[in-house]
Amino acid sequence: MAFNITRRKFLQSASLAAVALPLSGAIASESGITRSPLEPKGSLKDETVVGGVCEMCFWRCQLVGKKRGDRLVKLEGNPKSIDNGTTICGRGNAGIQLLYDPDRLKYPLKNVGERGNPKWKRISWKEALDECGTKLKAIRDKYGPQGLCMFPHGATAKYPMHFMERTIGTHNVSEASFFQCRGIRDTAYLATIGKAPNEDVDMANAKVIFLLGCHFGENVHVSHIKRYIQGLQNGAKLIVVDPRYSASAAKSDIWVKIKPGTDTAFLLAIMNYLVVNKKYDAEFIDEYGEGFEEFKQGIKDWSLAKAAKECEIPVAQIKEVADMLAANAPNVSIHPGRHVSWYGNDFQRQRSLACLTGLLGAYFVKGGWVPGKAPKVGKTSWAKKDHGDEHNLNRNADEEPLYPYSPPGTPTDLIRDAALTGKPYPIKGAVIWGQNPIQTIPGQEKMKKVLQQMDFVMCVDVMPTDITMWADILLPEASYLERHDLIKTGTQWDFADKQQQYITARMPLVAPMFERKDHVYITNEIARRMGYEKDIPVQTVAELVDKDLSVAKLSLAQLKKEGGIHLLEGKNPYEMPDDFEIYFYNEDIADAGFPGVPTYVPVEQSPAGYARLLYGRVPLHTFNRTQNNVWLHHAMPDNPVWINDKVATKMGLKDGDVVGFINQEGVKSRTTTTVKTTPGIRTDAVFMAHGYGTANPLMSVAVNAGVDDTSLITKITVDPETGAHGMRTNFVKLTKDGKVIDIPAAV
Amino acid sequence: MVTNPKMPIQSATDHIATLYRFCAQSMQYPDSEWFSENYLSSLYGLLDALGGSAEKEKLQTAFSRSKDILEELQIEHTRLFINGLPHVAAPPYGSVYLDKTLRGKYSDDILLYYRSLGYDLAAHADLPDSLIHQLEFLSFLAEDGNREGEEEFLARFFLPWYPMFAAQVKEEAQHPFYRIIVSFIDFFTQEEKEYGVQHNEA
Fold this sequence. Notes:
The structure holds 2 protein chains of 2 kinds. By secondary structure, chain A is an alpha/beta fold. Among the domains of chain A are: 109-177 and 376-480 and 521-553, Rossmann fold; 199-359, Dimethylsulfoxide Reductase, domain 2 (3-Layer(aba) Sandwich), CATH 3.40.228; 611-741, Beta Barrel (Barwin-like endoglucanases). In chain A, 29% of the residues lie in helices and 17% in strands. In chain A, the strands form 7 sheets. In chain A, strands 20, 21, 22, 23, 24, 27 and 28 form a 7-stranded mixed β-sheet that branches. In chain A, strands 6-5-15-14-13-7 form a 6-stranded mixed β-sheet, with helices on one face. In chain A, strand 3 (62-68) and strand 4 form a beta hairpin. In chain A, helix 5 packs across helix 18 (519-529), helix 9 runs parallel beside helix 14 and helix 12 (304-311) packs across helix 13. The longest helix of chain A is centred in the first third of the chain and has 19 residues, at 125-143. Chain A is globular and about 105 Å long. By secondary structure, chain B is mainly alpha-helical. Chain B is 63% helix and 1% strand.
C-alpha cells in the first residue's frame, strides 16, 4: 500500500498541522515511556536469584537464575542443592525458551468461534473470571456438583483440584499422572507394602539394578540418573527388560528382549524359581511377609520353560536373571517404574515387582527400595468436606467400588462415559488445568465428543496445547519461573553420603509478563464468583507457601536468605519401620474379586500385518509439554519410528523413509515421520517417542512435527483393578506414498 | 482517558510527535476507551491527507459490513499479535525477529538506549521492545527536537525489524485496518533513510 505523497512532502506541507491537530485528540492511552533522570552509558545489573524449582519435567530440580536487569538469561542448578546439585538437564536449561516463547498464552482469551475450531478474542481478567464463575455456578446449580469434571495436571492444579473436590464436591476429577501414568504402580505397592513406592530405589548402592521398561538416559531426571550412574560406576550389574534396545539396554549386562505384554509371566517364573530353589530371603519373609504360602501355591505353575515360551525369551536367560538377583540379594534395586499404564494387566505386574523385591529381602537395605526420610511441611488447601458417595461414579449399585484399587479421583472413562450418555447423570462443565487430555488420554475422538457436549469448558495453561482449542475461556497461567507454588522436601541423592534433608520452595525468578496469573489467584476469584468466599483458605500463593513452611519453622524470607534451600541433619534411611509388612497374597484383593496372588493375564496379540505400537521418552522432551521449545525442538524435531531392520528390509523400507500410520481401527496418523531401522527392537513392535505431532497451529514450532502416538491409541483398554488405562494395546501398519504396507509377522 | 499532554500543538516537531503517538495508539488492543468516532474521523482525515482514498474506502466498506466493528478488530488484533490461528502472525516485539525469542538481548539494548537518552519504561509498560513503546519513544524524541536521536534510533533499533513485522502483517491481516496502520508506520519511519528527518520547512 503506497500513499499518494512522499513523506518528505507531507511533513513539509502546510496541511501537517491541520492533520495532526485532530489526531492528538484521538490519543487516549498513557505512554509506556516516561522521562527519567539521564543515565548516559548505563548498564543493566547482573544478579543471581535463588529459589527456582524446575518444572520442565516433574522431577523439580533446584535452580538459580542468572539475570541481567529483569531479564532471565540463564538457569543453573542451585549450588546448595543436595539433590541435583549444580546439574540441570537439557530441558532444564531450555526453560528460558519456555519463559520467552512468543507462542505462550499472554492474556485471557474468549473463544468466539467453535470448540475445536476456535476464534480467539482477548478479554479482561474480570470478564474472563466473571464468565468462568457464572458458567460453573450455573452448571452446579442445574446439575449438582457432579455435573462438573476436571482434568488437572501439575503443581498448580492441586489447589484448584481440591476446590473442585472438597469445596464444590465433585468426585469427577481425573489426573493424567494417575490414570494414564503411575497410579497403578502406587496402588499396587500400597496393596503390597502399604506405601506408594515413588522411584525410591537406592541404585547408587546396589549390586544389581533391575529395570522393567524403564529407559534411563532417554528418560532423564537428574538425581535419579545420578543414583543410576553412581551404581553402575560402583560396579552394579544391570538387567534391562524391554522389547527395545533402549539407552539403558545399551548399558546392560543382560538385555531381556521380552515379548510386549508378558512381563508378569517373566516375573512369576523368576519368583517361582527363587522359591522352588530356596533362593529367597526366608528370614525376611518370616518376619515381614504375609500370605507367603498362598503366594507359593499361586505361582507354582510358572516354570522357566512356561515363561520362556510365553515371553519368547530363552529359559537360560530367565534363570541367569534370577540367579543374578539371588546372588546379590538383598542389595538389589527392583525398580517400580513410573509410567506403567501399558497393557491393561498392569496392576498384577506392579504387584509382582513389589513381591519380587520382598522375596529378595530388598526393602530398607542398601541398594534396595529405600524411601528416605524427608522433613515435614504443611499441606494447606481447601478444607475437606464430606460430600458422600452418592454421585461417585466408581461405585456400583451396592455402593462397592467398581475399581477398588483406583488411584485418587475417578477413572477417566467413568467420567467420559457418563458425560456421553448422561447416565447416571449429565456432566456439563469441564475445567482443564495444565493437562492436555487430547494427547494424554487414549481415544481422542471420544475426548472431543465429551468436550463438545459440555455447556462450558475452561482451560488454564501456559502454552496453547491441543486441548486449549476446545476451551470457551482460556486463561494464561504464570510459568514455574514466574510464580510461587510448591514446597519440595527430600534427602541427599546418595544414601552413602552424610545423611541430610532439605526443604525448598518454588519462588519466582522473574515477574510474570503480560497478564499471566497464578493458580491461587485464579481459583480464589472463581470461588468468590461461585459463592465460596468464606471457604477460601489463603489469599495469595505466597501466603500458602509461608503457612506450609511455618510447620518446619521456616518462611519464604528465611528460605531466600539461606540461598533457596534449607538443610537439616538427616536420619538413617535404612531403618525398617516397626509396622512394615509385605502382602504376597492379599485377601482384600481376592475378596474384591481379583487375583490375590500376582497373576499373569495374557493380552491381545497383533492382528496379521500389524505391529504393536510402543512409545516412550526422549531425553530432550517431556511428552508434549516441551514440544514448542525452540531449543529442544532443534535438538529433537521429530520422532522417527523404530522398526526392526529385517522387517524393514522385507517391507522395502530404509532409514529416513517418510511414513505414516494406520491402526487396527483404520485411524490414520495426521502427519508423517521418518523410519529408523535397527536390530534393537523386536519384530512384532514399533516404537516412537510420545508427545509429538501437535495439532494446534498456535504452537508454531511444534505443530505437525512428528506423529502423535496418542492419535493412534483408539482402542481403549482399562486395567480391571484400578480403572487406569493401558496404552500399549493398539497395533499399526505403516503407510508410504499413499499405500498401506503390512508389517510381516515373521522374518 | 488521558488527554494528550502536548496540547496545544505548537511546532512541526510536535506534529511529528503526534503522528508517532497516533500510530502507537492505533496498535493498542482495541477498546472503546480509544477506538471511538473521534479516533475514526482522525484516521479518515489522515488517510485523506495522504491521498489514501482507496484505503479509506476499503476500511469503510469493511466497517459497514461488520456487525460489531470493535469485536472484529479485537479478534483480528488477538489473532495477529497475541495468540492466533494459524499462529500468532506478527508478535509486535523486535526481539522476536532479531533474537528469535521474546525478551532477547535486543530488548535489553533498547531499554539501555531509552535510559541513555533520559527515558525509561513506566510501571505499567509492556516489554521494552514493544512496537508501541518504540513509537512512543520516537514521539518523545520528535517532541524534544532530537533529530539525531530519532535517526539513530530508527537506524539502530527500529528499521532492523519493523519491515519484517510489517510484511507479516500485510500478508496475514484479514482486515484492512492493520494493513493501513502498518503502512502509516512504514510511511513515517521507512523513508527516513532516503530523505532524512525534516522537522522544519527549510
